[in-house]
Write a structure and sequence with these properties.
The complex is a heterodimer of chains A (about 280) and B (about 300). Chain A folds into 2 domains: about 1-50, no CATH class; about 60-265, MetI-like (MetI-like fold), CATH 1.10.3720. In chain A, about 75% of the residues lie in helices and about 0% in strands. Chain A is built from 11 helices and no strands. With about 300 residues, chain B is an all-alpha fold. Chain B has 15 helices and no strands. Chain B has helices spanning about 15-45, 55, 65-70, 80-110, 115-130, 135-145, 150-155, 165-170, 170-195, 200-210, 210-225, 225-240, 245-250, 260-270, 275-305. Classes of the chains: A mainly alpha (about 280), B mainly alpha (about 300).
Chain lengths: ~280, ~300
């Protein structure tokens, strides 16, 4: 009786795994296979004669390449500012007894969940408009920085609280200045946390659609996120082979960073790591 | 050095340096979070537009924008606020049930298992969550395509009907998409929680001869109840604000997938009615505030120990 139940449970498990696995795999598999097909295929098919021509065509398309460069500029810019500012802030929050700091953190988290992209698109647009930053890389970078900073600070604060203060104290006792202590003791100790925050910020900006969609108008400023969208919505029937090749190139950095994080730190996530 | 032995007021860095390091974050958050939050309230009481007189010289018009949203003679018509709100409730509820149950099922099925199958499954579900939304949106357009999409070729091969999903069932399509996209969060949350359950509890259950369902209901579920509450509140909050379905349907056809984020976008950036768009945003923020408060002061306080 027990054996029967065991066998049935195993069968049930594998049916479940295969079914759910397929549901998650098929759309991703299409993204992996379609770019290598010489003909446009909307269904998942292994190409008869795999070709790299679609990638050649994408690399020859200056507009598409410009999109990837723009994504790089915006994601890297936001990544640097977010990592530096979040580290500074989190360090202060974990070391200095600023009055009301716990309230500050709670209010920060509350606000960042209340003022979302869909709720703040009008004032953000008007704000950037009045600052003359609509249709600029800087505008996109600043808006992402403001939006992602609270979560970044929150994660970094948790990380910094786990680092014992004794290293810093001994540096100070041995006569280091505040700046030397931050440069030679704090920065090396927090580097793993900064890596994680940096990657997290980069991936978020790289993959987001709404903010560049609202703030950018001219094609030469658009990142790959909005460029892909205009490739497949404009000009009638999209050239599926080319758009899929472009989409695959576009997801590769995220894939690479995921594999890196998974290998180096183990993919873990904190409260609201994905905003 | 323990706290008592430190001289009074000893700090690693002085308050002055601390405040200096703190300043950039305050500036960013004030300009890009606090200021939009306050300004959206103000704009919502004006007739501000992008172009024309409303742009040069917006007038205060009191609660007119709100009266327009809650004009009950028309608000359930397609493309209106009430219609969008009702669609959003269905969308959030369907996505929530799908994501939480599917995430729980996967986490439970792979509880106390290791190996390649688990790694592959978790990687697939996680990639669905973290890959850029535009690329994922494009693959789903292909997946759901009425004539040549993979979903219909599978359904057709087993003799089921093959509708044009995005045209005939736009809301169900974007719900399906959103469940696929977001299940990873619940899965990772539950699988971490189940991983912390002491194996001895389950061994005892095995000795007694409890069934899988009994093990789940009587042992595992009560232990992961805090995470369950977390998943429900956060998934509701995120799904309520999600704009990604725009990539599949742009809210159509005929406003049938016009969920609230898309509705706000249309009013503000296609009709350029910033005043009315802001009034919608205010209502969205009030709902967000309620959900976030439930999470921060209800679920998180009780559930997660620091």
């Amino acid at each position: 009786m027990n054996l029967v139940r065991y066998v049935l449970a195993r069968i049930g498990f594998y049916v479940f795994v295969v079914l759910i696995g397929m549901i998650f795999a098929i759309p991703l598999l299409w993204l992996l296979l379609a770019p290598f097909n010489s003909q446009a295929m909307l269904s998942v098919q292994i190409p008869d004669e795999p070709t790299l021509n679609n990638f050649r065509a994408v690399f020859a398309n200056t507009h598409a390449m410009r999109g990837l460069l723009n994504s790089m500029i915006q994601a890297a810019g936001a990544m640097v500012i977010i990592t530096v500012v979040a580290s500074m802030t989190a360090y202060v929050l974990s070391r200095v007894r600023i009055p009301g700091r716990d309230v500050f953190v709670y209010v920060l988290i509350l606000f960042s969940s209340v003022v979302t992209g869909s709720a703040s698109m009008v004032p953000i647009f008007l704000l950037l408009f009045s600052m003359g930053l609509v249709d600029t890389h800087l505008g996109v970078i600043l808006v992402f920085t403001g939006g992602l900073l609270p979560t970044a600070i929150f994660i970094m604060r948790d990380f910094m609280q786990s680092i014992p203060k004794s290293y810093e104290e001994s540096a100070l006792v041995n006569g280091a200045s505040t700046w030397q202590m931050i440069k030679d003791v704090v920065t090396p100790l927090t580097r793993p946390g900064m890596m994680v925050i940096g990657i997290w910020a980069f991936v978020n900006v790289w993959g987001s659609f709404l903010i560049p969609f609202i703030l950018l108008r001219s094609p030469d400023k658009m990142p790959a996120a909005t460029a892909t969208f205009s490739f497949y919505t404009e000009a009638g029937t999209p050239v599926i082979t080319l758009v899929s090749a472009y989409a695959l190139i576009y997801v590769l950095p995220v894939l690479a960073l995921y594999l890196f994080v998974n290998w180096r730190y183990g993919f873990q996530f904190f409260g609201g790591i994905k905003s | 050095m323990s706290k008592e032995l430190q001289p009074k007021g000893f700090q690693i860095i002085s308050l002055k340096v601390g405040l200096l390091l703190f300043l950039p974050a305050v500036v960013f958050i004030t300009i890009f979070l606090l200021f939009p939050f306050i300004w959206v309230f103000i704009i919502s009481f004006t007739n501000r537009t992008l172009l024309g007189a409303g742009a040069r010289d917006p007038q205060f018009i009191g609660i007119e924008n709100y009266l327009r949203l809650f004009d009950f003679s028309r608000w359930m018509q397609p493309g209106e606020f009430g219609h969008s709100l009702a669609l959003t409730v269905t969308f959030v509820f369907g996505s929530l049930i799908g994501q939480v149950l599917l995430g729980l099922a996967i986490a439970f099925a792979f509880n106390q298992r290791k190996g390649a199958v688990r790694e592959i499954m978790f990687t697939l579900v996680t990639l669905a969550w973290i890959l850029p939304e535009t690329a994922i949106g494009f693959t789903w357009l292909a997946f759901l395509d009425g004539r040549a999409g993979t979903l219909n070729s599978i359904l057709g091969s087993v003799g089921l009907s093959t509708p044009d999903w995005l045209i005939e069932y736009p809301l169900r399509s974007v719900m399906m998409f959103n469940v696929w996209r977001g299940t990873a969060f619940s899965m990772l949350l539950f699988s971490a929680a189940l991983g912390n359950v002491r194996p001895s509890y389950l061994e005892t259950a095995d000795v007694i001869g409890a069934s899988t369902w009994q093990r789940f209901r009587d042992i595992l579920f009560p232990l992961i109840r805090p995470q369950f509450a977390t998943a429900i509140v956060l998934v509701t909050l995120w799904t309520f604000n999600v704009f990604t379905p725009f990539l599949l349907t742009q809210g159509g056809p005929a406003f049938r997938s016009d969920i609230i984020a898309i509705h706000t976008y249309r009013v503000a950036f296609q009709f350029y009615e910033f005043g009315r768009g802001s009034a919608i945003a205010v209502i969205v923020m009030i709902i967000n505030f309620i959900l976030a408060s439930i999470y921060l002061f209800g679920v998180k306080r009780k559930g997660v120990k620091k």
